[in-house]
Amino acid sequence: MREVRIRDTLSGAVQTLDADHEVGIYACGPTVYSRIHIGNARPFVVFSLFARFLRSEGYKTRLVINVTDINDKIYTAAARAGEGSAQFAARMTAAYVEDTDRLGLGRPDAEPKATETVDGIVELIAHLIEGGHAYESGGDVYFRVRSFSGYGKLSNRRPEDMDQGEESGSASLKEERLDFALWKSTKEGEDTSWESPWGAGRPAWHIECSVMAERELGASFAVHGGGSDLVFPHHENEIAQSEAAGRPFAHVWMHNGMVDSAGEKMSKSEGNIFQLSEALDRYGREAVVAYLISGHYRQPLAFGKLPMEEAVARVERLRNFFREHPVGYTAWIEGGVTLSPTADPVSATGGPAGERVAGFLDALADDFNTPRAMAEVFELVSEANRTDIPNAPAAILHMLGLVGLASLAAGDENADAAAERMMLERQDARAAKDFARADEIRDELASMGYEVRDSADGPRLVPKS
Ligand SMILES: [Zn+2]
Questions:
Q1: Residue 235 C-alpha to ligand 1 middle, in angstroms?
Q2: According to the model, what pLDDT value does residue 443 have?
């Protein structure tokens, strides 16, 4: 079992995970007011794979990713769609599950929903009021920020630089500008509400996560994760709510950087690819996963056609490697099965291949450095393409399995899907009058055994006889 180190946002220091206790991981999931985009998929992929790595190292691990299905944005989006908000949120939750299922990484151990947690939320708010940390005002309840001396320790902001980002209508109900909502009374146009000691209303966003995390993982758990855009106010407020109630919260805070499409001119079609489902349609599961782990999780990740095409090229390189070096395995099930779950993969593999596996695992243990880990994979691919390295294909398969990419070794049963994607790319190239690129893709397809026939109904892919 490797020592696993994580750069902690709260202390700013590197923290070592406690191997003697279950590693509970709570990551903030999506607010279901639209189909999720590729940025929402990043924490899902990072924390799913981090949990997979910890398990493979022998850490008892429990991964929780919640669904925020009560939120201002849901009321607005449901009204726009002409749908009841409960029905709309349920539909978007199902779409989120469907989209993330297609990533092929399995489900988290628990996926609590805010709508199923309201009783616990009411209880925590009542407890905070009793302790003087919260107050009722006009049917709303607010957290009294000045009552919690640790406020600001996560985001390191001065109170005067803090903006809770709440609607201006609530300002007159607050004792202080800095206070934030725990409970909101039902407003006009809101078609769901829950009973509480303060009247009909609904929980505010931050308190939902305090309660869901504690309910699933206990009062003190190992890792709280989420996007870096959530550090303030969301995570700062989660800490305040839980700790003011006398409940110790997360030990380590692990934040992923944002997926950044700022450099990309967002045409309509590129806007669509920004949706996870569209990116999966166009580039395939493996390329999307490979893209999302191509940068260190804490860094921002540039999104666009070019980085996605680079990811496609990388997975094709791996697929080609396995075409040349087939691995004799019968069934690989994505979602947690490793090549040899009991054996130490390094000593099992041995030699230069074993050294690469060791480097790969060390990189993941060092603040989950996926780009450094993947560099070990590609080094071994290059070496094994040059010269015969014993066990290289099995070692590469083992490493890819830990990052959800073992299907690349599944042989040519995926060739049709890859060819279909390349044909779509060729159509794009032709539409953009990039005929050189279109011809290049046609030649690539030919080398894979496919012929593109242009017909009146558009191009068709025909296996060459
Ligand atoms: Zn949250």
A1: 7
A2: 83
Cα distance between residue 464 and residue 106, in whole Å? 36
Distance between Cα 208 and ligand 1 center (Å):
7
Distance 110 CA to ligand 1 centre (A): 14
Query: What is the C-alpha to C-alpha distance for residues 353 and 359, in angstroms, rounded to an integer?
Result: 10
Which residues fall within 8 angstroms of residue 24, CB to CB, at 6 or more apart? Answer: 62, 64, 216, 217, 218, 221, 222, 223
Could you report how far apart the first and last alpha carbons of the chain are, in Å? Answer: 51
Q: Tell which wins on pLDDT, 196 or 392.
A: 196
Ligand 1 centroid – CA 206 distance (Å):
6
Residue 429 has φ and ψ, to the nearest 5°, of -60, -40
Mean predicted lDDT score pLDDT of the chain: 89
Tell me the CA–centroid distance for residue 209 and ligand 1, in Å.
5
Instruction: Please identify which residue in the block is written with the tokens 């406690």.
Output: 18
CA 422 to chain centre: 26
Among 38-47, 203-212, 260-269, 280-289, where is mean pLDDT lowest?
260-269
